[in-house]
Amino acid sequence: MEIKMPGGGRSFGLKLILVGALAFLLWLPAMLVYGLVFERSTRADEVRRDIYERAGGEQSISGPVIIAPATVETGKRKSDGEPVLETVFFTFTPKELSIDAAIDASQRRRSLYEATVYDADIIMTGKFEALAPPAWPNDIQKIHWDCAILALKLGDNSALKGIRNTPTLVINNKPHDGAFEPGVMLTATGRYNSEISQTAPGISTGLPITAPEQGFQFQLVAPMSGGGSLYFSPVGEETSVTMRANWPDPSFQGAYLPDTHNITAEGFVAEWRIPYLARNLPRSFAVEGGLTALDAGNRFGVVLIDAASPYQSVNRALKYALMFLGAVFLTFFIFEVMTNARAHPAQYILLGLAQVIFYLLVLAFSEHFGFEAAFFGSAAATVLLSSAYAATVFHSFLRGLIALIAFSGAYGLIYLLMKSEDYALLIGSVTAFGAIALTMYVTRHLDWYGARKPA
């Protein structure tokens, strides 16, 4: 297909418009690849969540806290004048809480997909000072300290799968002989002798308190497993958390960022310090809604991300697919301008399809061989194919060599886009400007209405 002006000349202006339209049309199948990436990544997320759940889930740990039932007046009276009583559960938070979490992370594979799981040795030390009940609108007749429990709240009931061994509790340097039970079960007699019951996911052990005004020190060791992330809640008036892991790609999430962190190729160390006024939690309060006040909106921790996942990188590159299709077509168009040879629109289409298939090759091979090997193998094959095609179309080995250099540079930029999240927009915009500037320079003397006159 040749676009000719009267008198036999060719219109480069109309040819450039046609090339731009072809680039846009070939961008549509690239978006179909984008849909395929979304489908594969969704499937990977499903497999990852299933692996997480079997390993214990994305752990969220709140505690330890003390919970004791209390008999309080409701403010109402019976027919005989006696006050109507009910039972509420008071929760008491520690004065000091220090958490040390040593995380041993690894990857578990199922079919084509991988998920990050971990074993964590969690040591919680601290102390409870004098246990004072919260302000209450009516009289508190009695707090049943003999029925008190020490509870550690987890994210949900499936998190119990992550308990690798029986937790150990030491009170005032003496081992606690009470057994831990699954779940935090709160059952008592409510108003008008009705039975009330509240439950929360976690573990608990009976801890009768004889002198609530004296307080005590504690150490709780909880070997836990999980997948993907580990969160804590600042339940202590002064909470400090130290995390150490052999994972080089942490993402710190939640209500608080670490005060200090050090990330290396071997792993990371992060520390948090949360004071009382920043935790948005009173020293003591009545239990409502299964201890949700402990972690509602104030948990923090780390997500062990997989930086080698191909889906995010391929998605980022596909956002600039139209720009790179245009850059490849501009290279061909500049060759047309600088030589007497002409490229047919069908040849542009074949060249563009090769660039679209490149993304598909990267996605397919990266699921089997890893992203780096998939990218460089697919890029080398596509660049060599496109350069050899350019040499054939323009009947020049030199033109093919120039195309090889140009296409290699373009795919080098694609690699930077895939690997650099922070600078992807900067790289893409500068590349687009450079491509337009180069085209304007090369075609500055071109007669857009007809064929270029011999020099």
TrEMBL record:
Annotated InterPro entries: Uncharacterised_IM_CreD
Keywords tagged on the record: Membrane, Transmembrane, Transmembrane helix
Presence of keyword Cytoplasm: no
Keyword Transmembrane helix (UniProt): yes
A Pfam family assignment: CreD
Cellular component aspect of the GO annotation: plasma membrane
Transmembrane segments: 317-335, 347-365, 371-390, 397-417, 423-443
PANTHER family, A to Z: INNER MEMBRANE PROTEIN CRED
Protein name: Cell envelope integrity protein CreD
Gene for this chain: creD
